[in-house]
Amino acid sequence: MSRFSFGRGEQVAPEGQMSLMEHLGELRTRIIRAGLAVVLGSILVIAFYDTVMGWLLRPYADLCNRQPPAYCGRSFDPDTGKVLLFNSDPIEGFATRLRIGFYGGIVLALPVLLWQLWMFVVPALHKTERRYAVGFVSSSVVLFMTGGFIAYTTLERALEFLISWAGDDVDPLFQVQSYVRLVTLMVVAFGVGFTIPVLLVFLQLVGVLTPQLLLGAWRYAIVGTFFVAAAITPSGDPISLMALSVPMVVLYFVAILIGRFVQRRRQRAEA
């Protein structure tokens, strides 16, 4: 615990611990570094905006190319094979460019963000728990990217489901902002869903959860996973729901196996 000097009103931390002001200074440093990483990533994405936008429109273009010309309505030019999105506000194009840059900057800066978060939490952990920093950060980045990639690959089927349910008399006419919001929310939802098992492994390492507790609640975990996947999937289509929930269930049991492996190593070390 921290000690206070009542005569001067200053907080003095014991040896090996940080005072409140030191914690605030550390937090400020981590936030500044994370913010700079996001800014640099955003500048890079905005510099290649046309390429990034073409990548975002690729699933919709592939869908329209394999459907009859009237399927996508005025949102698709069959002569050029390009998707046509529309702006309903003079500043919407500029706002969309900034939004894509910001979201892309977060994705590019994700390793830095996770590393800064981990380094801020590290002083509160034991020495044996700090050595997992690289593994947790790298696995979180890999799982987030994997989830985002799966969201991108299932986006074409999700759009097909949404357009078909709109009815034959509805002519698709998508706005740039609405389409970009759907794609980014899909990527973020899948990415976050895939990183939840990393949090479960961390909670097992620090002793908050045990593999036995997680294994005993596997039925509730499966049902809860499907509910969570249905809640965070922006499109709401069954294809995206299954593409997110099934890997999350598999990763849940993988997290239990990792926790059980670490638990046995600790038991052998104690023995």
Written overview of the protein:
The chain is mainly alpha-helical and 271 residues long. It has one domain. The protein has ten helices and four strands, in the order E-E-H-H-E-E-H-H-H-H-H-H-H-H. It has helices at 20-47, 49-65, 92-108, 110-121, 127-130, 133-166, 176-205, 211-216, 218-232, 238-270; strands spanning 3-5, 10-12, 76-77, 82-83. Helix 1 (20-47) runs antiparallel to helix 4, helix 4 packs across helix 6 (133-166) and helix 6 (133-166) packs antiparallel against helix 10 (238-270).
Give a quick precis of the structure.
This protein has helices at 20-47, 49-65, 92-108, 110-121, 127-130, 133-166, 176-205, 211-216, 218-232, 238-270, and strands at residues 3-5, 10-12, 76-77, 82-83.
Strand numbers in spatial order across the main sheet: 1-2
Q: Pick out the low-confidence regions.
A: 1-15
What distance lies between the first and last C-alpha atoms, to the nearest angstrom?
32 Å
Number of structural units classed as domains:
1
Q: Number of helical runs?
A: 10
Q: What is the arithmetic mean of pLDDT?
A: 82
Approximately how much beta-strand content do the residues carry?
under 5%
Written as H for each helix and E for each strand, in order along the chain, the element string is: EEHHEEHHHHHHHH
Proportion in helices: over 70%
- Largest beta-sheet characterization: 2 strands, antiparallel
Radius of gyration: 23 Å
- The shape, in one word, is flat
Total number of beta strands: 4
